[in-house]
Amino acid sequence: MRIGIVCPYSWDVPGGVQFHIRDLAEYFIRLGHEVSVLAPADDDTPLPTYVVSAGRAVPVPYNGSVARLNFGFLSAARVRRWLHDGAFDVVHIHEPTSPSLGLLTCWAAQGPIVATFHTSNPRSRAMIAAYSILQAALEKISARIAVSEYARRTLVEHLGGDAVVIPNGVDVDFFARAEPNPEWQGGTIGFVGRIDEPRKGLPVLMAALPKIFAECPDARLLVAGRGDEEEAVGNLPKELRSRVEFLGMVSDEDKARFLRSIDLYVAPNTGGESFGIVLVEAMSAGAPVLASDLDAFAQVLDQGGAGDLFTNEDPDALAEAAVRLLGDPERRAGLRARGSAHVRRFDWSTVGADILSVYETVTAGAAAVAADDRGSPGLRARFGLARD
């Protein structure tokens, strides 16, 4: 199958959507499919052979963060050329409502289109206001996927229609077989995320550290991610700052080793999360997880069965839960075991197969519609496909 995948966000700025698309593409390539990914990227960015650059992206505030998107006449021309050259059996657009390549592709593409919705934002005024503009493009979509029930709910409330829920995928074994780094072991709390993005919640964790360190004198915090390190510890008492170590951006391999090494992974995110891929990665590596009680996080953690939850944006609740877990090796061992079993449902062997089934359904539907044009009526309505 010839598969075209559209990434809305800049390929050279790491993020959950980009990682999902990368891993999905490589999963399909391993199965023998032909895959091309269209993504914004700076001209000097080294790209995998399967990625085609749609040009430089610009930063735009989006969903409580700053996304690097690509839009305009030049981008539209590159989209049309990519579609023409690819002659894809199916086009898979991620975040088709963002002002980026996905929307341009919706307008330009013919044939089967699958769309994945990642955003969870139940109060998106922008999406409501843009509905009339988006409607014509969205009507061309053959099948919709949401990465969580909360992303599905956002889609239903703002745009109508429905979607099948297929979560983000992870190569579970990649994390499970990583070798721990002895330098990162021993009373370590771990955090992975953009330091300078408030919704990732590092300030909440920093506010909880004095109480955690007072009760657990051997504990320390390891932070993996980009951002202003001095600002991050600015409100932490000076005598405690030596117990916080910043690792900067880490490779995929080092992230896996990091998660295999720590005693407790903390996800203090405050909102705007539709899934929680880092929780899945942490469970895959066998790290006990403590996360804020966002709806999406609770779903990923089996409502607290595969990881502990604390009250969102409450440093005292975070500190109390962390101290309890750091002092209870048996409880942490139980979370490791349950998390490792629970996380298998997110492995690419399951997630990728489910997405491929969607592709096969829409391409079979398109073939049936083509036959319907030459024969009996009814199949077009059955598969819900628009006439090209």
UniProtKB/TrEMBL annotation:
Gene3D superfamilies attached to this UniProt entry: Glycogen Phosphorylase B
Residue ranges constituting the Glycosyltransferase subfamily 4-like N-terminal domain according to the UniProt record: 14-173
Molecular function terms, GO-annotated: hexosyltransferase activity
CDD domains in UniProt: GT4_PimA-like
Cross-referenced Pfam families: Glyco_trans_1_4, Glyco_transf_4
Record key words, sorted: Glycosyltransferase, Transferase
Top-level taxon: Bacteria
Gene Ontology terms describing biological process: carbohydrate derivative biosynthetic process
Name of this protein: Alpha-(1-2)-phosphatidylinositol mannosyltransferase
Organism for this UniProt entry: Streptomyces phaeoluteigriseus
Origin organism lineage: Bacteria, Bacillati, Actinomycetota, Actinomycetes, Kitasatosporales
